Amino acid sequence: DSGVTQTPKHLITATGQRVTLRCSPRSGDLSVYWYQQSLDQGLQFLIQYYNGEERAKGNILERFSAQQFPDLHSELNLSSLELGDSALYFCASSPQLGYGYTFGSGTRLTVV
Amino acid sequence: GENVEQHPSTLSVQEGDSAVIKCTYSDSASNYFPWYKQELGKRPQLIIDIRSNVGEKKDQRIAVTLNKTAKHFSLHITETQPEDSAVYFCAAIPLGGGGNKLTFGTGTQLKVEL
């Protein structure tokens, strides 16, 4: 157990729908990062939060949004889902900006 | 921003042989370089890291070397075993600044054959 908790582990939904992925960082970690990993692909950075504030944005689609709450958990919202959004979505957290990255077990999203 | 290139994309070795994966980075301010191992369908896990004030670091069968002048770093796995088969990602970041994140390489699929 890495200490980073992601729910749900699996999600199957239809095209056009909206889903919310949840991440609870390790205790004490202030930074949360979201990554998308499609089949046989690398880790595509989506967005980063630090202590409730957005710090960096990657190739995140306009249909996707995220936030970090006062208790430091984060949610990634994916809307108007398309088949191509099927992927593993990882959350990572770190105590400092960039150091000690630890990944959660991921949410496998399947859009049918 | 930082750009990390990783080679090769796939690597096949015989059990017991050594494996080397190489990465180059673009941002001279980067000073922290971790390596992650990802087994199929699982989360990436940190296996070793190195800071820029060190040229080499070793942990049992794995080692990482860093050449700051040339901006490249490498992962070395000796006496490879079937359980070493996985995807390996290198990464780089300048620690200490705001808004910084790890930039990952594109990954190397390592296959250790019996």
- Helix fraction of chain B, binned, reads under 10%
Number of helices of chain B: 0
Silhouette of chain A: globular
Bin the strand percentage of chain B. over 45%
Query: What is the overall pLDDT average of chain A?
Result: 93
Radius of gyration of chain A: 13 Å
Defining traits:
heterodimer, A: about 110 residues, mainly beta, 7-stranded mixed β-sheet, 4-stranded antiparallel β-sheet, B: about 110 residues, 6-stranded mixed β-sheet, 5-stranded antiparallel β-sheet, 11 strands, globular
Task: Describe the structure in your own words.
- Chain A is mostly beta strands.
- In chain A, 0% of the residues lie in helices and 51% in strands.
- Chain A contains no helices and 11 strands.
- Chain A has strands at 5-7, 10-13, 19-24, 31-37, 44-50, 53-57, 64-68, 74-78, 87-94, 102-103, 107-111.
- In chain A, strands 2, 4, 5, 6, 9, 10 and 11 form a 7-stranded mixed β-sheet that branches.
- With 114 residues, chain B is mainly β.
- Chain B is 0% helix and 54% strand.
- Chain B starts with a strand and ends with a strand.
- The model of chain B has no long low-confidence stretch (mean pLDDT 93).
- The chains are: A mainly beta (112), B mainly beta (114).
- At the A-B interface, strand 5 and strand 10 of A face strand 4 and strand 10 of B.
Overview in brief:
The complex is a heterodimer of chains A (112) and B (114). Chain A has 112 residues and is mainly beta. Chain A is built from no helices and eleven strands.
SSE layout:
The complex is a heterodimer of chains A (112) and B (114).
Chain A: E1 5-7, E2 10-13, E3 19-24, E4 31-37, E5 44-50, E6 53-57, E7 64-68, E8 74-78, E9 87-94, E10 102-103, E11 107-111
Parallel strand pairs in A: 2-11
Antiparallel strand pairs in A: 1-3, 3-8, 4-5, 4-9, 5-6, 7-8, 9-10, 9-11
Chain B: E1 4-7, E2 10-14, E3 19-25, E4 32-38, E5 45-51, E6 56-59, E7 62-67, E8 72-77, E9 86-92, E10 103-104, E11 108-113
Parallel strand pairs in B: 2-11
Antiparallel strand pairs in B: 1-3, 3-8, 4-5, 4-9, 6-7, 7-8, 9-10, 9-11
